[in-house]
Amino acid sequence: MKRFAQLFTELDQTTKTLDKIKALVSYFEVAATQDRIWTIAILSHRRPRRTVSAGYLGTWATERAGLPMWLFEESYSVVGDLAETISLVLPEPDERSDETLTFWINFIKSLEPLDIEEKKVKINWAWHRLGGVDRFVFNKLITGGFRVGVSQQLMVKALAKYAGVKENVIAHRLMGNWSPETTTYETLVLTEDTQDISRPYPFYLAYALEGTVEELGDPKEWQAERKWDGIRGQVIVRNGELFVWSRGEELVTDKYPEYAAFLELLPNGTALDGEILPFRDGLPLSFNHLQTRIGRKSITSKLLQEVPVAFVAYDVLEWDGVDVRSWPLTARREKLETLAAAKPHPVLQLSATINFSTWDQLREERTHSRKYRSEGIMLKRKDSIYRDGRRRGDWWKWKIDPFTIDAVMIYAMSGHGRRANLYTDYTFAVWSGDQLVPFTKAYSGLTDEEIREVDRWVKQNTTERFGPVRSVKPELVFEIAFEGIAKSTRHKSGIALRFPRIYRWRKDKVVSEANTLQDLQQLLNTHG
Amino acid sequence: MNLLEFTAKGIYCPAADVYLDPWQPVKKALITHGHSDHARWGHEQYLCTTAAEPIIKHRLQLTDNIQSVAFGEKVMINGVQFSFHPAGHIPGSAQIRVELNGEVWVFSGDYKLQHDGLSEPFEPVKCHAFITESTFGLPVYAWQPQTDVFDEVNRWWRKSQEEGKVAVLAGYALGKSQRILKNVDASLGKIMVHGAIEAVTNIFREQGMVLPPTVRVLSEMKRADFEGALVICPPSAIGSPWLRKFEPFSLGIASGWMGLRGTRRRRGADRGFVLSDHADWRELNQAVSETGAEKVFVTHGYSEIFARWLTEHGLDAREVKTQYEGELSEMAEATAAEDKALET
Description:
The complex is a heterodimer of chains A (528) and B (344). Chain A has helices spanning 2-13, 17-30, 33-43, 54-65, 69-79, 82-89, 101-110, 116-127, 132-143, 152-163, 167-173, 185-190, 262-265, 287-294, 301-306, 329-342, 359-367, 448-460, 517-527, and strands at 204-208, 222-226, 231-238, 241-246, 270-280, 283-284, 309-319, 322-323, 348-350, 376-381, 389-399, 403-414, 423-432, 435-442, 462-466, 469-472, 477-482, 484-487, 495-498, 501-505. Chain A is of the alpha+beta class and 528 residues long. In chain A, helix 1 (2-13) runs antiparallel to helix 2 (17-30). Helices cover 25% and strands 24% of the residues of chain B. Chain B contains 9 helices and 19 strands. The longest helix of chain B has 17 residues, at 146-162. Chain A binds chain B through residues 12-16, 65, 67-68, 70-71, 74-75, 78-81, 84-85, 88-89, 149, 415-422, 448-449, 452, 456, 460, 465, and chain B through 138-142, 239, 257, 259-268, 270-271, 302, 304-305, 308-309, 312, 323, 325, 328, 332.
């Protein structure tokens, strides 16, 4: 555990990619094989099942530290991380453990069948042997949410370097369904594994276009499509079985029963990249509709009828059982079009390409994005291969400018994680007559400098406190940007925004100059 | 009428007609220490400790409207007895004891109990009413012994040297920087400081404080001049173009806020050293208990929470709103004099 805790500390202490890779490689070099694969699993968000609820952990730690529960709660709201709060309030341990990471993971798993009193005894035993970072890491292993600023891409780089295997091969091997309980480091990383027929390909992600579109060169070398606002996904048919993966590497086959049709539409050995999108009468529905599908455990036939979901296909990654990611885009596109034309079906929509011969024409097309319920345009170089992870150069997203509205900050709440202990989450209101009506929350968008300034202002201009929330003098005006607007019965204002964020702090505006609820309703009528 | 009252201008003693660390201009102000949220500009008369006087004079550019007294020396103002007692926060920092007709109040300003090897150690003062800060008034704040922290700093400096990086350590100019100078292993290499820090440090040296030699960073210096050095700068230099000349460097921050992982990561530093000049949770509780006070007023920090905790332990404690900012202001501090120093 000490060595893993040291790795954790090293990763946490630097923001530089090269240092992180170095830390990972030197960890892989000395770690026991079993610890090594658990580390890979944890860093790719495959932690062991939770065997103790977070609520109990908090209570037991509070008891052990001799504090009242309310004080623990207050501390938690400042620290913003349960595992960290627990390790900070607990008294120093009497002994120091030197068991391995795998020992502690097995320890956590062994709690599963125990009753709650037995669990408490075991957890206290662990707390009594672990101090400092070890204790924090142990708590994190139970509660989850291990964010150490190690992206999948970064770990792939480190592992590739350590194992001497190409990065794209490693990236692919780490995808899909695996667990340290069912595979070994050798099988996962070092051997060509054909066991897992569900294994998806790493997604190729684009950056936002920087500079002007003219800088991309000859328009003839580029393919343009609408940028759809759904859930990026991969549909795979192998051995007569269907697998649907979301970008978060979650297997979501059961959530979209209409996709069962793919078993008829796609031959064995096919993998498509595309967008999971609610689709009716030839047009996508808003993201709000999709959200009604995402959260549900059981999908009723009524819901299926109201919010039918299609797959808008972008690309083909596997054809006839062969990985075709190295083919140029035009060749892959041709296959995709043949496939869609062979057996037309509403569930398989082709992401149409946009006809254009000059950048100005495309610029004009982009202004119609909202009409298509799209977020803008995707640009892909026609000869590009399908790469892995987020990369610059061959693919770009060219989004439309967001809607914006000036609003007044009325509540502030402290953030979590990196923003714990700072008032960073704000609620905004617009005018309705002489009343300020809250209509959205927004977090991101300010610089660290501005956040500190607002934080200080909040602390000095609080009118009331309820738990972690403060109501503040209505005085600060912010420009709020958002991508979409929809009717909502859950909100007092009657509207819900898509991706609201703070665009800029309007220090030049006074409260009376903020927008009104009517302005929002106007937007709803034209774009909702 | 209370001996001390909390007014819009600051903490006020009506019997003596003086203010303690007021935040709006007043006729007579008693000042605990030189940090900008306690020693403000614009009062007609200032009174502080002899040890704190040179700094306050320098920062507020005062000439003849400041007077000072030794620690423990009694001063009578309109029949009220005042005295200054070490607060252990920074060199020269004081708590102010106020007595009238046998009733004693103590205003602690900012304080810490751990000895830093530099400041006059905190002195518990018995009183009926105690006004305490609560900057780190939560049980999650528990400082490690200072020697452990400086072992870490020394290790980091050595590691930076091995990697060919300049070790840049941010800590506020008044107090923290000198504490670093005093306790870091100066045999490891050259210690260089930002102009704002050099100015304050020299004032302390003139007062007789023994600190290792420092070299002021000048704009004409080249990267080679910084090889293997530890550079101490104020937090306001983080993210400024001033830092570029040290590339490649490793950035450390010394502050109590570094005790939380979220803050550490937010500041974008390579290393966070948990080093505070304020009392942690245990010290706050110890300080309050040692005063024997029955009435406690809790100012800046987690005031509401700490007051509630004290109330549950049988004290008459309440939260008081002030404009003191504790370590927050020290993180962002830049007085006029230091801004000037930044330019050159």
